[in-house]
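INTERNAL AUDIT FORM
Audit reference: QA-55
Scope: verify that the stored structure record matches its stored sequence.
Auditor: D.O.
Record contents follow.
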Amino acid sequence: MTAPLSPGFRRRLEELAARRRELEERALDPEWTGDPRRSKTLFRELGRLRKIGDLEERVEELERRLAEARNLCEGGEDPELEDLAAGEVSELEKALPPLVEELEGLLLEDDADLDRDAVLEIRAGTGGVEAALFARDLARMYERYCERRLWKMRPLAVSLSELGGFKEAFFEVRGEEVFRRLRFEMGGHRVQRVPATESQGRIHTSLATVAVLPQAEEVDVRIDEKDLEIQTTTSSGPGGQHVNKTQSAVRITHLPTGLVVYCQEERSQHKNKARALQLLRTRLYDQERRRREEERAEVRRSQVGSGDRNQRIRTYNFRDNRVTDHRIPKNYSLQKVLEGDLDPLFEDLLRLERDLRLKESSFQEG
């Protein structure tokens, strides 16, 4: 039998419904919608509240149908109807818990950035050429996952190794729930396999690191042009017709912080500059975000994943055809994971995060 939402969760839903009505009124006010910064923040929050409201309606509908089906089972007048009702009860009791879990998870989340797009950074670590090849494999894995979820993943800058691996690579990812899911990828990814260049058949261990930054909009971070040092260079790449030979690649240094960003994937200098500035805004926004999180000192973030590149989160073992996530811990099929089948893993991590937050919350109280 499905446990109903606790009174604490019900109260939270009422609070969010009132907040949603307030924001819907503001969305009709030109004073709010005319200000890009306030408007962007308003509609991002409103979108999240509408998603919660829609999910609440689905849960309530299934609860209503389940109650009706159970009443029919107790009728005692029509055995055939009771059998049909019993079948519906069985189906609804399976369908309802995942929706309730998802709703509780959304109610427990307190990160306003979860609905943002993201910048995905992949860097080769210990392991030389093999680490760079593994970094490339990770990029392909994420590309396949994006295709499954109908997300758009496009490169910002890629630095290639001698065998075509990735020394470092930066990608922009856009879609629904991008940062909410990809944030779990932050940290060290270890691979254990026999490299193609290994003549003795020995297993090598290499490392790549992944960072995921919530995408910042222009209204989130204001950048003064006088704080920038902008250089143009020739784009580099593996060769062939797609390499841009003109001085269109752009490198920007933010003088106050020393942050350096680089973009070469577009064919025009203007577009590369715009995308480099976007990456710079995202880096600056991430710095401020991390400062806020450190002040909050949330224990659960160190339990589920702190986003520290030095934290080893996952091992890819080719000999045993398994992937082990060390935060759960649990094993998954290596072949499926590399093909982009990451949702089962992310669902387990979301459930773990939900359970940890639930222990710390007061929502279960009456």
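Auditor finding: record pair retrieved intact. The mean pLDDT is 86.
Action required: none
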